[in-house]
Task: inverse folding
């Protein structure tokens, strides 16, 4: 009797597995498809051949296909994450402050320690309440010691909280890097610097307008006092404060980047300061990508963040535009300007390509620019096309930049590519005190 029961149970398991297997083969996609929930390409059915069977590639690919395409996969994954986070004590604010693709990497003395340092939380971040003094208007203001500069979140009750605090030594190092770059430019060239907060910082204001009154930063004034005359330093906090207070969609909620509107506002500020009459955003044709869940969501796939689903606005170039990867100061293979196959932040330029790239909007202005950036540059770069013949870009992070392939320093590229102006557009992850700013840029200047 027991053997018969065991046989029946085994038989039913075989039948159930067979039915599930048949559903997988009959009702799931056999070609790679984009998952909106995970913002990645799900594996398709691999092609069977004698070669792939011998080297084991087919079995690995088939296993990945089974993992990515199993029956009701999205529903099962969503149910599992919902169950997990139902018992989580983390608030939405805590989840939105989590890590994403770009994390602060501090300067370290030993280059071999870079990998370990990437996991370190920014030493410049501070969540302590500022020492306060009351002026005649009754508004409390931070006491500045002169040894550091801070970014402040202003509360409606008149108090302030330090979001970031930068030591004077790091500010001086940043100014030295900026000045060395500015010295490469021709006589009429200008250097523009904007260090942008990630959404983890911006949304501490944008999502709490009922308790917060704005923000301010001392850092840009501290930098301005130390840089050359041909350098302009811009405060992203000044650029974005009023739009955010008006409820403008300047930053994503589930992704660490700014939106295309935020990128446009930053570009507009720098260009108008440079004497350009900028093109109104309304003159661009826009396409929308709905149901975007970005890097912060993907880091933990919290079901709580799904309610904050984002939208990507993509503004099309005014004239036919082209982009090319650049090595040895010469264009190589063509790259997308808008990658219509993507439904995430990669829609902007198709992502980051190195060692250099340029975009050409078809304008004849007689000037070229170079943007030193991280991924924040991908959505802002197209807005510079009407004002420059070529917008060159470089991201010095090791995963995107190869010095041997570049076959030239920034100084070489400024000379050989006819660069007139340099822009630094970096997130706070790669700003003052970071490995990117203090080492990766500096070691590639000359």
Result:
């Amino acid at each position: 009797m027991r053997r018969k029961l065991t046989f029946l149970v085994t038989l039913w398991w075989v039948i159930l597995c067979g039915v599930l297997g048949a559903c997988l083969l009959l009702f799931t996609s056999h070609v790679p498809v984009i998952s909106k929930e995970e913002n990645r390409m799900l594996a398709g059915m691999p092609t069977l051949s004698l070669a792939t069977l011998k080297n084991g590639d087919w079995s690995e690919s088939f296993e990945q296909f089974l993992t990515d395409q199993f029956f009701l996969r999205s529903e099962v994954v969503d149910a599992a994450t919902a169950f997990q986070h139902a018992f989580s004590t983390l608030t939405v604010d805590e989840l939105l402050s989590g890590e994403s693709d770009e994390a602060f990497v501090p300067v370290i003395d030993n280059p071999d320690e870079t990998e370990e340092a990437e996991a370190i939380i920014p030493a410049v971040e501070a969540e302590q309440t500022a020492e306060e003094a009351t002026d005649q208007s009754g508004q409390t203001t931070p006491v500045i010691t002169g040894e550091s500069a801070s970014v402040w979140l202003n509360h409606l009750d008149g108090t302030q909280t330090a979001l970031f605090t930068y030591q004077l030594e790091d500010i001086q190092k940043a100014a030295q890097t900026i000045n060395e770059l500015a010295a490469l430019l021709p006589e009429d060239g200008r250097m523009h610097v904007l260090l942008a907060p990630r959404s983890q910082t911006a949304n501490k204001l944008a999502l709490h307008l009922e308790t917060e009154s704005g923000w301010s930063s001392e850092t840009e004034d501290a930098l301005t006092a130390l840089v050359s005359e041909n350098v302009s330093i811009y405060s992203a906090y000044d650029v974005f404060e009023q739009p955010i207070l008006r409820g403008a969609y300047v930053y994503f909620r589930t992704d660490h980047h700014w939106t295309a509107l935020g990128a446009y506002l930053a570009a507009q500020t720098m260009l108008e300061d440079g004497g350009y009459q900028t093109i109104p955003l309304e003159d661009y044709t826009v396409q929308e990508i709905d149901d975007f869940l970005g890097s912060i969501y993907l880091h933990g796939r919290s079901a709580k963040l799904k309610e904050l689903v984002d939208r990507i606005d993509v503004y099309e170039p005014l004239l036919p535009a082209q982009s090319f990867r650049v090595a040895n100061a010469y264009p190589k293979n063509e790259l997308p300007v808008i990658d219509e196959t993507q439904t995430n932040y990669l829609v902007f330029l198709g992502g980051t390509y190195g060692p250099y790239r340029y975009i050409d909007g078809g304008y004849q202005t007689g000037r070229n620019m170079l943007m030193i950036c991280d991924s924040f540059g991908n959505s802002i770069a197209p807005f510079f096309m009407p004002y420059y013949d070529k917008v060159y870009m470089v991201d010095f992070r090791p995963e995107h930049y190869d010095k041997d392939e570049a076959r030239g320093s920034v100084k070489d590229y400024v000379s050989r590519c006819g660069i007139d102006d340099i822009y630094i557009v970096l997130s706070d992850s790669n700003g003052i005190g970071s490995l990117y700013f203090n080492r990766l840029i500096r070691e590639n200047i000359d």
Observations:
- The two ends are 84 Å apart (CA to CA).
- The first helix runs from residue 2 to 27.
- Residues 36-40, 113-144 have pLDDT under 50 and may be disordered.
- The CA atoms of residues 22 and 71 lie 10 Å apart.
